[in-house]
Design goal:
Elements lengths: L4 H5 L5 H24 L12 H33 L8 H40 L11 H37 L5 H4 L6
C-alpha cells in the first residue's frame, strides 16, 4: 500500500472530503429532480390526479425519489470515503467506520439542506396561495388526497433511511478502494487504451 506522511498524521474528521461529497450529492439530486419534474414526477403531482391515476402517481414519484436519493447518497458517500485520508496505524474495521461516518455525514448534511429548501419552497408557495385566494384548506382535502399524502410521506421517510445506509456503505467502499489502490481506470476512463 502506498501511503504518504500526511496519511499517518490524519486522525480527525476531514470536512473537505465531506463538503466535496455533499456538493456532488446535492448536484446529482438537483439535476435528477429537475429531470423528474419535467416528466411529471414531482412530489405534488400525485395529489392533482383523480382515482387510480393518483395512486400510480404516488408510486411513480416514490420510486423516482428513491432512485434520486440512492444515487446521490452513493456518489456523495463514495466521494467522501475515497477522499478521506486513511490512517495506517488503525485496523481496517476502524478505517471502515471512519469512512462510513464520512459518508453518513454527507447524507445528513444533504438531507438537511434539501429539507430546508423544500420548507422554504412550501412556505413561499403557501404564502402565494393565500395571497391569491387559491389556498386549499387541509380540512377540505379528499380522502384520496389525504391517503396519497400519507403514502408519499412514508415512502419519503423510508427512502431517506435507505439512503443513509447507502451513503454509509458507499463511504466504506470508497475508503476501501483508496486503501487497496483499486484501479478503476477501466471503468472511468473515456480514453481508449492502445
Amino acid at each position: 500500500m502506498v501511503v504518504s506522511e500526511k496519511t499517518v498524521l490524519s486522525h480527525g474528521f476531514e470536512w473537505s472530503a465531506v463538503i466535496a461529497g455533499t456538493t456532488i450529492a446535492l448536484a446529482i439530486s438537483i439535476v435528477l429532480l429537475q429531470f423528474g419534474s419535467a416528466l411529471g414526477l414531482s412530489a405534488s403531482a400525485p395529489l392533482r390526479g383523480e382515482g387510480s391515476i393518483a395512486s400510480w402517481g404516488v408510486i411513480a414519484a416514490g420510486i423516482w425519489l428513491l432512485w434520486v436519493q440512492l444515487l446521490a447518497s452513493l456518489a456523495g458517500g463514495y466521494t467522501a470515503g475515497y477522499m478521506r485520508s486513511p490512517t495506517i496505524e488503525l485496523q481496517d474495521h476502524e478505517n471502515d467506520i471512519r469512512d462510513g461516518l464520512h459518508g453518513l455525514v454527507v447524507w445528513s448534511i444533504s438531507t438537511v439542506m434539501v429539507f430546508i429548501a423544500v420548507a422554504i419552497f412550501a412556505f413561499a408557495a403557501s404564502y402565494i396561495a393565500i395571497q391569491t385566494d387559491t389556498y386549499e384548506n387541509p380540512a377540505n382535502l379528499t380522502n384520496l388526497q389525504h391517503n396519497s399524502t400519507v403514502i408519499f410521506t412514508f415512502i419519503s421517510g423510508a427512502t431517506a433511511l435507505l439512503s443513509a445506509v447507502a451513503a454509509w456503505w458507499a463511504g466504506t467502499m470508497g475508503g476501501d478502494h483508496k486503501r487497496k489502490v483499486v484501479d478503476l481506470s477501466g471503468h472511468l476512463s473515456f480514453r481508449k487504451k492502445i
